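Usage example:
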Amino acid sequence: MKLKMEMALDTKECWNCPIKHQAVCARCEPDELARLEDIKYYRNYEAGQPVIWSGDHMEFVASVVTGIASLSQTMEDGRTQMVGLLLPSDFIGRPGRDSAPFDVVAVSDLTICCFRKKPFEELMTTTPHIGARLLEMTLDELDSAREWMLVLGRKTAREKIASLLAIIARRDAALKKHAPKDGMYFDLPLTREAMADYLGLTLETVSRQISALKKAGIIELDGKRKVVIPSLELLINETGDDMDGGPIV
Amino acid sequence: MKLKMEMALDTKECWNCPIKHQAVCARCEPDELARLEDIKYYRNYEAGQPVIWSGDHMEFVASVVTGIASLSQTMEDGRTQMVGLLLPSDFIGRPGRDSAPFDVVAVSDLTICCFRKKPFEELMTTTPHIGARLLEMTLDELDSAREWMLVLGRKTAREKIASLLAIIARRDAALKKHAPKDGMYFDLPLTREAMADYLGLTLETVSRQISALKKAGIIELDGKRKVVIPSLELLINETGDDMDGGPIV
DNA sequence: GCGTGACTTTGATCAGGATCAAACCGGGTA
DNA sequence: TACCCGGTTTGATCCTGATCAAAGTCACGC
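Running the assembly step on the lines above writes:
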């Protein structure tokens, strides 16, 4: 039951049909696709650029095509908490509400596929399975958010870091379409500060815990941003989760 | 944009139609209601009783009728994190998945209205607006969960307690169908331990911070479980949130 | 009344992360 | 080459909340 966060991240799909890792896939029925083509357009952002500020009026909903965006909130005194990472195929915005509840910022270079909201909402009413897929995706995201609440509320700094690395390792393996395995190697897409904001820590603590995991032989670093996992089992031991989070697909 | 948690709690509705504060309301079209009557049944639990354990097979979805339940997860070493409070009209379970992702426990005496899953899923496909309402409710819950991540990740113990009290105050006022106002009085439905599990604190810290808020005149206690809020503004100042979380309806 | 048990409060001490501060590293550029 | 700048590491110290421990409160049953 644990590590569901990772599972949810592993199984993102085209929101229009059940094809994995595509924002909009080629299998969608032609007439629907045609209607989508009609109302969609693309936007590009550079790393660090804001996409939407909390409270902004949103005239579109969108889907991440490539890159990573973050969803976050900031208190007046500057404390910020990231509440989600938006990966390819993740949905941005919500039908039926027109002001954004959170800030969306491009973490890496980012391309999103936008759909004008009104026509998209009409499409939803005439094409029920889109609503059904959206419900399914939203329920998965809700489960993920709740899993993350355990990380934020109850895990130690070291467990938090290990949990984040385990998630990124799994997602990365899924994107490359192979199982995560011992010795795997991946790129850390986040700065220490972004990791801190995601984990409810300070960047110094993040840095120290990464150093500690390195010293303990749980991870190896190649430069600052590339990570090798000698043993997945050792890493997952550090997360505080048990191992039955489903098979490491 | 802040205090959306409270807003979401304020506006729970019948999931079958947009009537507030009812699990299933009388306005639903007669034929649908008839079909619902066909597949529904009630269950009662005493305070403290488990409703579902994480991983259990769920043969029903349900809706809270009266009382409060908690949604929580527990690590092997016993650390537990509550990830949601289920109040009247909240939905339990999810169409399309048959094992529960979290523990559900009755916090107070509890009545839920169950619907056998298979027929409910059929009903959803034949009655699209039920799916639409469920999507809307799920999106609200997702926003609430993400708001709570800020509380867990970035707020101090005192701010956490104040945030929880503010939420309960608003919900309580909403249930009594009047605006929360200075001097309002309500019942604290949670033990110190349950509050701690919700806030990612220990029960001693909860107790100490409640004492501190009392000493500071932010709240008054009548016994252990009844609270008076002399000034809502003072309380909200303590939450760390700004005041623009919408009007205190 | 008395005891019992669940819940709560309070005290003393400890430790995990935060904070403040300085140095380091690597890449870009003048 | 020297410089700068964003990101990172490391060190010293502080403080919030955890932990360990004991006592208080209240409702209940005998």
